Q: What sequence folds into this?
């Protein structure tokens, strides 16, 4: 009897998380000689524990599966549920009873660091009880902070959005070039500044905006910041500054904490917001120029208007590759991206041990950050530029994007 497939999504969405879903589902349905039914978890592992699933073949019959590919957000719904560290916890036998109920032989989880932690725990528990279910992780995160992979699906499209939006902001700010002004753009990034660094791609010439970029990998000094802005204003009238939400003093205090108390989420992560607003008030007080702050918020991860064709295709391919790896007997692995050395951009895929990936973070290499800590190097530009290439035509209806909505 053929075993069934189940796929879920977890954590924060991206513009291409559903492209990975499409890759898994389309490949699994295509291999109906090897698989039985293909199920989707509603709201990730948390929903699955409650028996919330859907038959993905329905999407194929209706033709909506193609729409899923370019639909932002998580089509199946997401969760932020951390499985217990103790593998003797009662949730594990409960989940494996669910797997048996649906005759699951193959499990695919699309997500970031915490999702890979889920794959790690389930695969280790399976080995502990002698289960032959294959557990595979499909990477996803705009933060680009997973280790042992060149980059992650979602980063390229988010980077393209950030760079495009910063370029638009710079043009908007320049219309009053007879008045000095500062615009501070706050970009997502708790401990890793990859997405903020991508704002450098907005530049068209030397000295173009953003002239200052600050990442959480380097300790942030507010006095040095004020001097950097003051010096920049002596060269150009309208200064664009891009900062990561997680910029900190290097001693454990986030800059946003200087303005107010910060709460924590279900994983114990500090909920960061307000770094841009704090610096806006600081510049206004110390320099007395026109200043505003812009927080990109969820737009940078959910916009499909600026999808990178490269990012979209790699997301599809990584999902499909994960299915093929599972068929070859792989388990407890995550699909990693391997860039071929050379002038031309080429990418390959490899299944790597998820236990060596989860609960670790990859920051922007310090050597890719300038010595004064306020910019990124040409090495980063060469790394990131290929990932934002290519346009995607999203299906439209009545002049608006047409997305797949789960009923």
A:
């Amino acid at each position: 009897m053929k075993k069934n497939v189940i796929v879920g999504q977890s954590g924060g969405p991206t513009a291409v998380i559903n492209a990975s879903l499409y890759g898994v589902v389309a490949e699994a349905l295509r291999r109906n000689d090897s698989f039985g039914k293909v199920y989707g978890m509603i709201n990730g592992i948390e929903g699955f524990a409650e028996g919330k699933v859907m038959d993905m073949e329905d999407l194929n019959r209706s033709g909506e599966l193609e729409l899923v590919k370019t639909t932002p957000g998580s089509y199946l719904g997401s969760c932020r549920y951390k499985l217990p560290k103790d593998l003797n916890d009662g949730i594990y036998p409960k989940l494996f009873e669910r797997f048996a109920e649906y005759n699951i032989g193959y499990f695919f989880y699309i997500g970031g660091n915490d999702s890979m932690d889920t794959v790690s725990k389930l695969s280790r528990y399976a080995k502990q009880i002698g289960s032959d279910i294959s557990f595979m992780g499909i990477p996803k995160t705009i933060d680009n902070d997973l280790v042992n992979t060149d980059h992650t699906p979602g980063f390229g499209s988010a980077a393209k959005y950030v760079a495009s939006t910063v370029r638009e902001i710079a043009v908007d700010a320049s219309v009053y070039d007879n008045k000095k002004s500062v615009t501070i753009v706050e970009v997502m990034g708790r401990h890793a500044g990859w997405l903020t660094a991508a704002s450098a791609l907005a530049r068209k010439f030397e000295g173009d905006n953003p002239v200052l970029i600050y990442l959480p990998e380097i300790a942030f000094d507010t006095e040095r910041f004020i001097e950097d802005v003051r010096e920049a204003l002596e060269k150009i009238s309208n200064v664009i500054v891009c900062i990561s939400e997680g910029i900190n003093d290097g001693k454990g205090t986030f800059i946003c904490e200087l303005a107010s108390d910060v709460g924590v989420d279900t994983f114990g992560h500090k909920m960061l917001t307000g770094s841009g607003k704090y610096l806006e008030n600081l510049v206004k007080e110390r320099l007395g120029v026109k200043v505003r702050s812009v927080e990109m918020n969820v737009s940078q991860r959910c916009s499909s208007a600026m999808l990178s064709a490269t990012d979209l295709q790699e997301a599809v391919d990584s999902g499909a590759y994960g299915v093929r790896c599972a068929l070859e007997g792989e388990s407890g692995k995550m699909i990693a991206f391997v860039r071929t050395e050379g002038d031309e951009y080429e990418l390959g895929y490899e299944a790597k041990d998820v236990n060596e990936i989860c609960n670790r973070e990859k920051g922007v290499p310090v050597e890719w950050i300038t010595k004064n800590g306020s910019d990124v190097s040409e090495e980063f530009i060469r790394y990131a530029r290929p990932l934002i290439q290519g346009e995607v035509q999203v299906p439209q209806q009545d002049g608006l994007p047409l997305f797949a909505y789960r009923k």
About this structure: Residues 261-272 have pLDDT under 50 and may be disordered. DSSP finds 13 helices and 13 strands in the chain. The longest strand covers residues 104-111. The longest helix spans residues 155-173.
